[in-house]
Amino acid sequence: MEKFNIAIDGPAGAGKSTIARLVAEALGFIYIDTGAMYRAVTWSILQKGLEPDQTAEMIQLANSMDIRLMPGPQGQLVFVDGAEVTGVIRTAEVTGNVSRVSSIAEIRSILVAKQKELAQSKGVVMDGRDIGSHVLPDAEVKIFLTASVRIRAERRFKEIQDVQQGITLERLEQEIAERDRMDEQREASPLVKAPDAVLMDTTQMTIPEVVESILELCKTQVSGGT
Ligand code: CDP
Ligand code: CDP
């Protein structure tokens, strides 16, 4: 089968990583979660105790980090300088700081260079915020996944209510809306639908329905695909 690249972008909790992983599995492609890379840098910055105004130190740190993504039994595993950080990059503290860190243009350039390299030999499903618009503008298939903020908060709430004690659905909805706002309004490659991306509103769609419609789209958009 001829290989091609798929870019999946969209706001927080739209289902990007779940869908991207399943689509990659169905096609025998490699899944790359770029959000995990921004989270890994943010985690490292917090570990080092850098203050929000220490931008130069943050850039230096991002430059020196060895971030690796590897497929695991339950999704992608993330390593920083050889140590596994898959779980710790998903804490509320990292989530609360990641949009600030990812608004730093120099940090984006460092990670975008890595992402482009990973997609070089094609056969990649990459999800994030700027993949179709900036990282892989030539991706053969581009999807912009979205859903109402309420349903995205409900989906996330189900995942974290047992882990994050005291969190309410209303609070989570506010946090998600605030992160979307920061991601959409930053100057450096903001969250935006690429003009040639297909918009999919998954508010009323199940996971298998979304996966199926993306696989169908691949068949129609890529000659010789699937
Ligand atoms: O999975 P969730 O929607 O919580 O977010 P994520 O994909 O793990 O991404 C975390 C954050 O990283 C986003 O809110 C963005 O601030 C940033 N990000 C980005 O700026 N560009 C990307 N390509 C991917 C993520
Ligand atoms: O990566 P992103 O933040 O866009 O979302 P995710 O982490 O893949 O999905 C958030 C949650 O929504 C997960 O628990 C998915 O199983 C769920 N989901 C869903 O219930 N229905 C969909 N159509 C898509 C995702």
From TrEMBL:
Question: What is catalyzed by this enzyme?
Answer: dCMP + ATP = dCDP + ADP; CMP + ATP = CDP + ADP
CDD domains to which the protein is assigned, alphabetical: CMPK
- Subcellular location as annotated: Cytoplasm
List, in alphabetical order, the Gene Ontology terms for molecular function in this entry: ATP binding; CMP kinase activity; dCMP kinase activity
Quote the cellular component terms of the Gene Ontology held in the record.
cytosol
**Presence of keyword Isomerase:** no
One Pfam family hit: Cytidylate_kin
Q: Which UniProt keywords apply?
A: ATP-binding, Cytoplasm, Kinase, Nucleotide-binding, Transferase
Q: Which domain of life is it from?
A: Bacteria
Enzyme Commission numbers on file: 2.7.4.25
* Residues the entry annotates as binding ATP: G10, P11, A12, G13, A14, G15, K16, S17, T18
User: Residue limits of the Cytidylate kinase domain?
Assistant: 6-219
What are its GO biological-process terms? Answer: nucleobase-containing small molecule interconversion; pyrimidine nucleotide metabolic process
- Cite the PANTHER family for this sequence: CYTIDYLATE KINASE (PTHR21299:SF2), CYTIDYLATE KINASE/PANTOATE-BETA-ALANINE LIGASE (PTHR21299)
Q: Which family does it belong to?
A: Belongs to the cytidylate kinase family. Type 1 subfamily.
> What's the protein name?
Cytidylate kinase
